[in-house]
Design brief:
By secondary structure, this protein is α+β, with helices and mostly antiparallel strands. 41% of the residues lie in helices and 18% in strands. A hairpin with a 7-residue loop joins strand 1 and strand 2.
């Protein structure tokens, strides 16, 4: 009998805890429902401790809801074709500018600088190849060897080297307008290491042929317009590939030259 009398208070204590656990469970459900409206619905008879716990639960639930809304918002924006703010900021941080140092030569001489913003979103393969060529120093002292009233071509190395493999095509996402920088194509339609500045709007011809611009001139288009054009397209590309500046300096000494290209992120 004595043992039975001692166990009953224990059973009453366990039974009295059950309503408190139910109150906490109800408070949790109410909190999750209330996060969308910005306030907490607490059980009417809950104590101060329960209210504090509910508030903490609300803060956690609100944080989860905020992260979920951010993800859904970004997904919705992408489905609508609009960049989410975080994505747009990330894109702006990745802006890459290439600076061309130029010796104009010709009859007047002088030097200049051209800044080009590269656009991987326009032509990812083309921009990647351009960066590789810069890292290898392929544009150092390279001549602007074909200049017409529409384009100015460069990129064949000053000293003959092994010709890089051609790169796969990029889709033409931007028109070949004046001021854009584009990879040229060889007789097989492949892009390797020769590029040109569009000095006129050439979209009506080049876009449908698959010429994909990789960047645009930010500063120095006046320098591009001053590239020496007296030889036109007379310099032989085949001879230039085989002999480099040895051939060009002897036969076409007035050609403008790109001395260096540097890339800054």
């Amino acid at each position: 009998m004595a043992a039975t009398g001692r166990s009953q208070p224990h059973r009453r204590s366990a039974g009295s805890a059950a309503p408190l656990l139910l109150l906490f469970a109800a408070a949790a459900v109410a909190t999750l429902r209330a996060t969308t409206t910005g306030f907490v619905v607490a059980p009417r008879d809950a104590g101060a401790a329960a209210t504090t716990s509910v508030t903490e639960m609300q803060d956690e639930a609100t944080a989860v809801s905020t992260r979920r809304s951010s993800l859904l918002g970004g997904l919705g924006a992408s489905l609508l074709g609009v960049a989410a703010p975080d994505v747009a900021r990330a894109g702006s941080r990745k802006s890459v500018v290439a600076t061309f140092k130029v010796q104009l030569e010709g009859d007047e001489g002088g030097e200049g600088e051209v800044k080009v913003r590269l656009h991987p979103e326009w032509a990812p393969r083309g921009v990647r190849r351009f960066k590789e060529l810069v890292r290898m120093g392929e544009f150092e002292d390279t001549a602007v060897f074909h200049v017409s009233d529409k384009t100015a071509h460069f990129g064949l190395p000053a000293e003959p080297t092994l010709t890089p493999d051609h790169i796969k095509e990029d889709l033409v996402r931007v028109a070949n307008r004046r001021g854009t920088l584009t990879f040229s194509q060889n007789k097989h339609g492949d892009r390797v290491n020769q590029l040109f500045f569009n000095t006129a709007d050439n979209d009506h011809v080049l876009d449908r042929k698959g010429y994909a611009p990789i960047g645009e001139v930010l500063e120095g288009m006046d320098v591009v317009d001053r590239f020496y054009a007296g030889y036109g397209t007379r310099p032989s590309r085949i001879e230039t590939e085989a002999r480099g500046n040895e051939y060009l300096d002897k036969e076409f000494p007035k050609l403008s030259k790109i001395t260096t290209v540097e890339i800054e992120a």
